[in-house]
Structure formats: structure tokens, C-alpha cells
Amino acid sequence: MLAQPWIAGLPAQMRERILAGVHTVRSGKGDVILRAGDFVKGWYAVLHGLVKLQTESAEGRRQAFLGIPAGEWFGEGSVLKSEPRRYDVIALRDTELLCLPRTLFEELRATSLPFCHALIAQLNMRLAQAMAIIETARLRSPQQRVAMYLGIACARRMFNCAISAW
User: Fold this and answer.
1) Quick one: pLDDT at residue 149?
2) How many Cα neighbours within 13 Å face the side chain of 76?
3) Mean pLDDT of the chain
4) Which of 23, 81, 98, 161 has minimal CB crowding within 10 Å?
């Protein structure tokens, strides 16, 4: 957590509150860690493991949206909205998540310019991923689609901020 660039610029008292307020969530492979329809409690990072974000239609058809590897934050859109979570978060391996509670997230968003810059960069990355997926689905061959999905996974790893182990 201390490796996050936005934390370094915070006053010591706020850093201490964040470190005291975050908590971890552990889960085994195949478990639903966060359920669609539940209240969103915070912003999450994958400390160890791998998760996928997926939804299920009324007919039982499942659609995975994104894989989130260790070192990456997710759920920023969900924590910004006051609505139930729209997707399940499923552990693809034994996984440990870090949760920055909603109250701390909101306080940082209201008071920390470095945090807001990090959040904007995160949202911009998500937007670029969404646009690439839309473009690929509409314009590319099956082989090009596979290559694009593999490229997204590699690019995400390059842009991730390191999250120190607890």
C-alpha cells in the first residue's frame, strides 16, 4: 500500500488512517469474493492471485468482462456510484484482496490531488480497455481478437503500481 505514489504526498496522519482502515479479503480458487447486487464497500486491489469480473444473464449465460492480476486496483466505477455491484468478482486462483473502504476513498477523492490524478489514470486505463474491446469486437478477425486480448493483459502488467505485501 505504501508503494502507491498517491500515498507519499499525504500528511502522515492521513497515511496512518488509511493503513489502519484498509483490510484484506481472502478467498479460495473458484469462490465468489464479491457478489453482484451487494452494496459496494470500497475500492479493491489484488494483492495475490487473480480474479475475473463476470455477470450472468437471467437465462444463465455468463460473460466475463475482465481479468484482474495481482498489483492492480479494480471497482473504481462501482465505488463512485451509489448502486449495488453490477458484477461478480470470482477468484481464479487462491486470492487476497486489499479493500480501501468507501469512506476513505471518498475522503481522498475530496481532499487529495495526487489520489485524484491516480484515479483519473485508472479510469483512463479502463476507458482505453473498453474502447479496444469494442473496436476489436466490431472490426477484427478472430485471430486479431485473441492477439488484442493477450496484448491488453501484457500492457496492464506494465502499467500496474506495485502493492506492497502486508
Assistant:
1) 64
2) 19
3) 84
4) 81
Instruction: Map grid coordinates 455468463 to a residue.
Output: 62
Strands (E) located in the chain: 23-27, 32-34, 42-48, 50-56, 62-69, 73-74, 88-91, 95-101
Q: Which three cell numbers stand for residue 162?
A: 506495485
Report, as an integer, the average pLDDT of 91-99: 96
What pLDDT is recorded for position 166? 36
* Residue 42: CB atoms within 10 Å: 22
Cα-flanking dihedrals φ and ψ of residue 3, to 5°?
-75, -10
Q: Are 55 and 86 in contact (CB under 8 A)?
A: yes
Please check whether residue 67 is in contact with residue 39, taking contact to mean a CB–CB distance below 8 angstroms: no
DSSP 87: S
Phi, psi dihedrals of residue 98, rounded to the nearest 5°: -105, 135
Return d(Cα 62, Cα 67) in angstroms, integer: 14
- In the chain, the amino acid numbered 161 is C
